[in-house]
Design the sequence.
């Protein structure tokens, strides 16, 4: 089977970061919003380093000002993912972008996104679930408000809570309260760590926040004892090679540690992160990994099966998606 034909699972997707440039330009033009400087000469997003990526995400969210915008964006993103063979995805949703951390407004945005997800599932078979996400660089107080929004929105669609943003700022323990609140609301937990900070960032995150999964986590490879701990505990890393390469963490895919981590027994899921910002897709990720590490269809099916095992969906949804992963999940 070719890369587009293989069934895939993407557990690490920022919805705003998947917004196609043309989609954002059309929305900005309709609202007379000046987005000068957002795009490069080729029409893609102008990304130069991690801080710029955060600024671009904020700018895109500023154009997407209504639940209707997010309904349209979700449909666009899910149809593109389905074209790449993605059958299940979990997307990060932020009250900072959707309703300004108002519980009532956020629920309106979530309802619009969930409605679009149901439509895409009916049309293309792709299943989406949401992970409400706070941002480390915005501070603990905003994270608390985000956790309250997450607790109120928790249902069959909103299944998780996480933290993203600049992991060099503050300490994971500063966000223990939001994670505890989300856990008490029945949400599963994930946390970005081990991309901009080294292994100590992952250790601190595991101790303070007790997440089910780690977003990125690739710098664990610098600490063999931590690699063994991750493997022993079965903690899945949501690895996004294209994002790591785009931000200069590694010179090329062959130098990326995902192969070494997997060889050491760490469970990995492959994600796209901000695919429109970074010029990537699940097909491109699969193609690069196959070329760099010689992974065949069996390897990718095993990764998809491990990803589904780590997904935050309910058992009924998991079984339904598993049927489409056969024979990998059998």
Sequence:
């Amino acid at each position: 089977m070719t890369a587009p034909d293989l069934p895939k699972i993407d557990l690490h997707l920022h919805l705003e970061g998947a917004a196609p440039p043309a989609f954002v330009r059309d929305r900005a033009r309709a609202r007379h919003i000046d987005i000068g400087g957002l795009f490069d000469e080729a029409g893609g997003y102008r990304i130069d380093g991690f801080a710029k990526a955060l600024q671009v995400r904020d700018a895109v969210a500023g154009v997407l000002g209504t639940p209707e915008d997010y309904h349209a964006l979700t449909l666009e993103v899910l149809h593109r993912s389905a074209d790449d063979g993605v059958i299940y995805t979990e997307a990060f949703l932020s009250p900072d972008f959707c309703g300004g951390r108002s519980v009532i407004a956020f629920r309106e945005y979530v309802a619009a996104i969930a409605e679009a997800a149901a439509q895409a599932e009916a049309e293309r078979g792709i299943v989406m679930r949401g992970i409400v996400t706070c941002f480390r660089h915005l501070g603990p107080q905003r994270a608390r408000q985000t956790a309250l929004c997450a607790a109120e929105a928790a249902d069959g669609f909103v299944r998780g809570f996480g933290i993203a943003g600049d992991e060099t700022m503050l300490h994971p323990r500063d966000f223990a309260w939001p994670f505890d609140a989300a856990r008490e609301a029945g949400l599963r937990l994930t946390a970005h760590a081990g991309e901009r900070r080294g292994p100590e960032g992952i250790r601190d995150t595991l101790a303070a926040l007790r997440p089910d999964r780690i977003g990125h986590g690739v710098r664990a490879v610098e600490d063999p004892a931590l690699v063994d701990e991750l493997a022993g505990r079965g903690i899945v890393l949501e690895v996004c090679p294209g994002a790591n390469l785009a931000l200069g963490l590694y010179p090329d895919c062959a130098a990326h540690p995902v192969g070494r981590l997997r060889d050491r027994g760490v469970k990995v899921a492959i994600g796209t992160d901000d695919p429109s910002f970074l010029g990537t897709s699940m097909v491109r990720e699969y193609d690069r990994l196959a070329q760099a590490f010689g992974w065949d269809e069996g390897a990718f099916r095993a990764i998809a099966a491990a990803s589904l095992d780590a997904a935050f969906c309910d058992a009924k949804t998991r079984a339904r998606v598993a049927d489409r992963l056969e024979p990998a999940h059998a």
